[in-house]
Amino acid sequence: VYLQDVIFFFLLGFGFCYSVISGPTNATVLAGSEARFNCTVSLGWVILIWLSNGNPVLTVINSQGAVETSDRFTSQNYTTSDTFTSELIIHNTQLSDSGKIECSTQKQNESSFAFLSVQVNGSLFIKNNTLTVTENKTVEIVCEALGWAPAPDITWMTNDSLIDKSRYVTQQSQGSNGLHNALSILTLTPTDTEVLTCLADIEALPNPQNATVTVIFGNSTI
């Protein structure tokens, strides 16, 4: 029997006049980083419970503070003259943490929730660092992204300018453990030496991951 369940039944006969003033907001983070959620309640609260996908992960009791049962779920508290804010901190986030994060006061219909999206930054590579081509020769440059969640958006650039999407084809596939792969093939007929960059992006990345190849143009008559 969970401690919060016992307290919940004990409190049923009391008419506490408190409410959730503001609940958590949606968050998107990279796997392995922290995720933080705030829940602010008015004074008079007795117990506050944080749930992840319906499972209690941390309980805060007014009279004694936070009851932490896992190192991955901790909290910080902030108090003003008329409110109390509990900040849930999820450490070393995992793909399986994605889902509903709920703040509940165990008062009927008195809860607030948000959604956590944990994303995985996989690998990105182009097999060759340099490629030499001759005049009028069409080449295919292959960029491979492995182990991402969700599947990344792939774009290409040449000498810092975006390449039109009609010049490359990207295929996505399901990997293992809920991860995704992407394979992008750029087709071009170079007329000069240029640096090609493949970029992979997901929402949680501050900047896209990139891989580059230098295509060296050589005149066939030389």
TrEMBL record:
One of its GO terms (biological process) is cell-cell adhesion. The chain crosses the membrane at residues 6-23. Gene3D superfamilies: Immunoglobulins (2.60.40.10). Keywords: Membrane, Transmembrane, Transmembrane helix. GO terms for cellular component: bicellular tight junction; cell surface. SUPFAM superfamilies: Immunoglobulin (SSF48726). Residues 18-114, 122-214 form the Ig-like domain. This is IGSF5 protein. It comes from Centropus unirufus. The lineage of its organism: Eukaryota, Metazoa, Chordata, Craniata, Vertebrata.
